Amino acid sequence: MRKVVLVTGASSGVGLALCKRLLEEDDELHMCLACRNVAKAEAVRGTLQASHPAAEVSIVQVDVCSLQSVIRAAGELKQRFQRLDYVYLNAGIMPNPQLNIKALFSGLFSRKVIHIFSTAEGLLTQEDKVTADGLQEVFETNVFGHFILIRELEPLLCHSDRLSRLIWTSSRNARRANFHLEDIQHRRGQEPYSSSKYAIDLLSVALNRNFNPRGLYSSVVCPGTMVTNLTCGILPPFLWTLLLPIIWLIRFFANAFTLTPDNGTEALVWLFHQKPESLNPLTKYLSATTGFGSNYVTTQKMDLDEDTAEKFYQNLLELEKQIRVTIQKNK
User: Fold this and answer.
1) Least enclosed by CB within 10 Å: which of 39, 51, 270, 279?
2) Whether pLDDT at 142 is above 60
3) 193 catalytic residue (yes or no)
4) How many Cβ atoms are within 10 Å of 290's Cβ, its own excluded?
5) Catalytic: which of 86, 88, 193, 313?
């Protein structure tokens, strides 16, 4: 029986590279591309199907920044499939990233220069906005939309006879200091991306605690620093061109600069082959690239505690109740 893999944000960047690599690992998969832009998804589907004729490639249209779209897509998936073996929760945004020039130059002369450039700690701020659902856009896209998708897909993910996997695209930029239980949507801060990625780490830990007995396991990954649609807006194109040779040199000291989406998928593909019961739920799996361009996987203990993770999970459940009441009233 074919394994079924669902990938959100599959039409570009890490998501597209991941689909290609997974089909190279197993060309008999059923790969379902969960994308907002159907036209782009159709083009990707055609390319993947042509290069892997033994595979089955399908599409589901979903915008994780719209809860109605998420619920509709989940309903469609429940009609199509009896189970999902892997769900890669990869779609995400970093809107209008602004580089903190003061922090950049301060970091250049800091003892933590390698760490700062590897994680972008304190270097980036973003302008967030409120969605049609009344939620902060970064929070809804990166965290809550995926959470609702999981909740809706529980019948396909929780089986006593076989395990299912959730694999989240997190970040080395996930910082405890940017997340607060009193402000889970980061309404009052300037680093919603970092906050959302820390929230993903918390959620993954809580999902393991609540769903492992039902056969569902969750892991988090950082694909590293890459030049993608997500990061291109941080600097003008000519500056990226000037910086790339320097970044190549820095890779001899900092393995976080994977640079390409293909390199960034290393940990995501590695997890595809692992037995989830053997993985530490408090570990983040990091894609890494050496100065000579070799890819490998390393690990990092997440800076969190399980009690906070559980409290965050309960907050999400409460927010879900409120949102569902609102959606019902608006029907």
Assistant:
1) 39
2) yes
3) yes
4) 11
5) 193
